[in-house]
């Protein structure tokens, strides 16, 4: 029975993630979204953020480049984040290993001139954890260290049967489970 509940919850959460991607209103600089689902040994993490955040580790203002170049540059910067551990740290003893990492970049605000040329970045990761019972703490401190522009992360998810919903900031960047 618990499998059915988890499957339902996952469907609901994926639905919410996709709904947000469609909604240009969710593209708010400084606000990131994380979705976490643990089912058995499998931990899925989706991390969505405004792609402009990738360029803000440096110093210079955005230049008005040709659109294609900008998207290309953003996608290079996004793919430079090779591991989800650049964003979140997990307890060592949970023994989680990444088995799949995908990156995607979506243009937002096609019908909204204010957001024209903006992009959302998405990193989706699947991990296999040998001791998922040791996943008692998840820290997004690496994300706050990496992205100077980051103010808040809205975290949603399901850990086995328990629903998760919390907003993290640099002063409160970890999640006790
Ligand atoms: Zn933007």
**If strands are numbered along the chain, what order do they take across the biggest sheet?**
3-4-2-1-6-7
- Mean pLDDT across the residues is 85
**DSSP helical segment count:** 3
Bound ligands: zinc ion
Order of secondary-structure elements: HEEHEEEHEEE
Backbone shape: globular
Radius of gyration: 16 Å
Number of domains: 1
Oligomer: single chain
Distance between the termini: 22 Å
Key features?
alpha+beta, two-stranded antiparallel sheet, single chain, 177 residues, 3 helices, 35% strand, binds zinc ion
List the topology elements.
Elements: H1 2-22, E1 31-39, E2 42-50, H2 67-79, E3 96-107, E4 119-129, E5 137-139, H3 141-146, E6 152-159, E7 162-168, E8 174-176
Parallel strand pairs: 1-6
Antiparallel strand pairs: 1-2, 2-4, 3-4, 5-8, 6-7
Bound molecules: zinc ion.
Zinc ion binds at residues 27, 29, 50, 52, 118.
Q: How is this structure best described in words?
A:
The structure is a single chain. The protein is an alpha+beta fold and 177 residues long. It has one domain. The protein contains three helices and eight strands; from the N terminus they run αββαβββαβββ. Strands 3-4-2-1-6-7 form a six-stranded mixed sheet, sandwiched between helices. The longest helix is centred in the N-terminal third of the chain and has 21 residues, at 2-22. Residues 18-24 and 56-61 have low confidence and may be disordered. The structure holds zinc ion. Residues 27, 29, 50, 52, 118 line the site of zinc ion.
